[in-house]
Amino acid sequence: MKYMMFVCTDTEPDKDPTAAPDIEQWVAERDANGQRLTGSAFAPPSAATTVRVRDGELLLSDGPFAETKEAIVGFDLLECADLDEAIEVARAHPMAYGGRIELRPLVDLD
């Protein structure tokens, strides 16, 4: 099953930043065992453009639409047997310590 793993900042990171694993090691291990299909960091929220259409009119806004201190800073597309495996992959990610991880299963539209 495929899961989108959103990597997010958090206003309350773990108090011991030295406990977080190394990101390059995390990526290499997940790539090697086929759990991570792809992933990337994002440009900062200030580089975002919000797109909406209302009454046929295109509305564009600079920066993130939501006013929040947390931000999605990257993503990884995972291939895992089930949610339990996806949780184990996410808990080993460095941002599980310094930020937060959101897992969402992808929906098969076929």
TrEMBL record:
Q: Read off the InterPro entries from this record.
A: Dimeric_a/b-barrel, YCII
| Positions of the YCII-related domain | 1-108
Cross-referenced Pfam families, in alphabetical order? YCII (PF03795)
Regarding protein family, the annotation reads: Belongs to the YciI family.
Q: What is this protein called?
A: YCII-related domain-containing protein
Lineage at the top is: Bacteria, Bacillati, Actinomycetota, Actinomycetes, Micromonosporales
